[in-house]
Amino acid sequence: MPPVPCTLYLVPCLFTLCLIYIMKEQKFEFSFEVYDSIDEMNEDDRQVLNDARDATKKAYAPYSNFFVGASARLSNNEIVTGSNQENASYPVGICAERVLLGSASSLYPDVAIETMAISYQSKTVKSDHPISPCGMCRQALQEFEGRMHKPIRLILSGMEGKVFVIKSASQLLPLAFTNEELG
Q: Are 121 and 131 in contact (CB under 8 A)?
């Protein structure tokens, strides 16, 4: 028998009957808010997003020319920012989101992040649409949420244009590898 629920069919084969397993398909979906611009957002969200946009100026990205800034409002109302920091040994660089998580954890241990905004500037592409965290950052955000037992609300935007708001960073990493898998 198959290890997961499925539908079984008995169908004619060449000289006999064959048993065919039809697996059930599952779907992952999530919804998010879309704003046409920062002007449609409340004051607190505008501040966090503007701080992320300002943080792009602190990025060190001479190789990719892709400057990412992140800003977070913590549950104690403090604001922490981070920016990507590249290195000639390319894998040694660190993304803005993980810079921010490390700073927040160091400055305010055991304080959850309420909302994180992520924005970018580029010398090669227009910054007029939201970007999403890379896979490594998604894993780090998911781990931080689990550690704090609180979702991190994400605001994603360029320097102008549409803004996406996602209720929980974990929504970006379905079927995540978590500390539960380690026992």
A: no
**Active-site residue flag, 78:** no
> Is residue 17 domain-resident?
no
Give the integer Cα–Cα distance in Å for 178 and 144: 11
Choice among 40, 86, 97, 181 that is catalytic = 97
- The predicted model scores a pTM of 0.87
Q: What DSSP string describes 10-63? A: EEE-SSSEEEEEEEPP-------EEESSGGGS-HHHHHHHHHHHHHGGG-B-TT
Does any domain span residue 41?
yes
Instruction: Examine residue 21 and state whether it is found in any structural domain, yes or no.
Output: no
Task: Report, as ranges of residue numbers, the positions in the chain whose pLDDT lies below 50.
Answer: 1-2
pLDDT of residue 65: 96
How far apart are alpha carbons 153 and 72 in whole angstroms? 9
Residue 183 is classified by DSSP as -
